[in-house]
Amino acid sequence: MKMFVLMWLACFGSASHAATVGQVLTYRKLQGHQIVRISGDSLDTFLSEALKAIPSLDILHRHSVGETRARVAPTDKEAFHSLLAHSDLEHDVEVEDLSEYLRAHDLKQQRAASARLEETCDESGCPAPLKSSYMTFEQMERYMMDLASNNPARVQLTSIGKSFEGRDIWMVHVSPDGSRISDSDSASPGSVWIEGGLHAREWISPSSTLHLLHERVTACDSQCDLDYYFVPIANPDGYEYSRTTDRMWRKNRAVTTRSDCGGVDLNRNWDYKFGVGASSDPCSETYMGPAAFSEPETRALSNAMSKVDNLKLMITFHSFGQAVLYPWGWTNEPIEDKEQLVRAGNAFADAAMRITGKSYAVENSAGGLYFASGATDDWAKKVLNAPYSFTIELRDSGMNGFILDASEIGPTAREVVAGVSALISEIRK
Ligand SMILES: [Zn+2]
Questions:
Q1: What is the pLDDT of the chain when averaged over all its residues?
Q2: 137-427, CATH topology level
Q3: Distance from the Cα of residue 422 to its chain's centroid
Q4: How far away, in angstroms, is 145 Cα from ligand 1 center?
Q5: What's the average model confidence in pLDDT over 169-180?
Q6: Which pLDDT does position 377 carry in this prediction?
Q7: Do 111 and 94 meet the contact criterion of CB atoms below 8 Å apart?
Q8: Catalytic residue numbers?
Q9: Helix, strand, or coil here: 374?
Q10: Protein residues placing their CB within 5 Å of the ion ligand 1
């Protein structure tokens, strides 16, 4: 035993992993939660039945390819496995205890952190979005404020509203570069809206959105004649809750009619086909809320997006699954201008493949029988008539899902920058 302890110390250093209060809380919350991979032809039918029996079942990604992963709480394990046993689906438990899995992940991240580049983002300044770790909401705010004060001619930071718990929802407007601003006759050829962080646990989304914002401001090229509107962190309460208390939190932090089940899925709360593909059960991960735009976050986003002139392109970044999704999410009916949406989506996917070798599928938002209505992409397309509207699911393809290593921040950002540039070039042809 003594020898084992000595060997352990030699390998991992003298201090054991000192978990933060947030980590301890999240380990406790997720103790005994399983992640199960399921595949087979009857997946769609199975999932809709399973969700009826177990409303709190957490479907982790889309399943148009006949495979998905689900998170099951300890109280539902027996019921879920009994349903699986009576199905003809293939299934295996990928993660037996999410709490243990996270503990090991955090330890690995902590050890890797010491070997990484020194980066700063604190009271002394925040010159660039971090690549070595996922930023706190406060660090994101600091970065956006520094960016605005260092680039007063092009960058304007506005709070478009407050979250349920009173945090600011920040929008960064990047105007066309100086040469165009001085020419008052020349209007911008169009606007681009980029939304990040609508779902709390998808940390790579706000991270990639900030890196894209940084690139659009600091490496201005031929696409800088456009107006860009960035909302890098659309669900700040949920994000902070997923950092400090429950790593798998998805929704906002609204209080619902059920004291034991909080939060509304902000990507089911938009006012177009509200409720067609969403749950009315507050305990569901896809709870749509009591009414369309019931939530302060979606009201702020939709009000601000409505005011944008000549909106040509809307992208909302999510994870995971590596897919460029185009409308509709509420129906399987093909959209009229499918061809041009697919062409633009392929431009993103081809560029990502060229830059990092990662493959992104291009498909419509509704996968199989799984409809997602009341989402940003359908609303921007239908209500605002944005010619191009996409949900982009970032890394990874399922290996680690939301628990994505910080070492993937840099490569994902490069994929996003190259992909968005190629997409914009394609739609301007
Ligand atoms: Zn999402």
A1: 91
A2: Aminopeptidase (3.40.630)
A3: 21
A4: 26
A5: 86
A6: 97
A7: no
A8: 393
A9: coil
A10: 199, 318
